[in-house]
Amino acid sequence: MILRKKGMAIVALRLVLGAVVLIQSIIFLYREDRSFGNHAMPKSVRLVLGLSEAAGALLFLLPKTLVAGAWSLLVVFGVAVVFHVVHGQFEVAGLVVYIAAVLAVLENRRQRPTAVTPNS
Hints:
By secondary structure, the protein is mainly alpha-helical. It has one domain (2-110). The protein has four helices and two strands. A two-stranded antiparallel ribbon has the order 1-2. Helix 1 (5-30) packs antiparallel against helix 2 and helix 3 runs antiparallel to helix 4 (93-108). The longest helix has 26 residues, at 5-30.
């Protein structure tokens, strides 16, 4: 039996994206305000944004909570895009790629790796 590579690729995408976002959210929580550019924000806002992103990433990494985590990350990334654009920071391509990756995982979550016989 051969497992479909698409299913393994989606799992790898989910794990890598979840880990990267989790690490970045932890860095966001602990770095100094001045590293956020010219738009310093209150610590309470940083805390809410960072913890929301970290929680979404953790949920996204776990198969049983993948859907909740995915929707949470979509909301966080969407808010981040709006926040950046409102503050004149139009370099949001990375966030758009993250959104596309989350959508790809969501779309393919129902398609579990299936066995393929050589005659298929």
